[in-house]
Predict the structure.
Amino acid sequence: MLIYATKLTRTPSRMTSRDVDQLRVVGFSDRDVLDIAEVTAYYAYANRIADGLGVPSETWIDD
């Protein structure tokens, strides 16, 4: 799951059906894969909005 989420975050254009198949092999359902993709995409979206608006990082987050 983490390999999938990392690849989707860093190199989304390289995602293939094989990436989904690898999740199925280890027991994730199609609904699980959808949830993983949606959560990963949401965080990418939210971070890009915050970055685009110049929202500063929380003070407790080390850069």
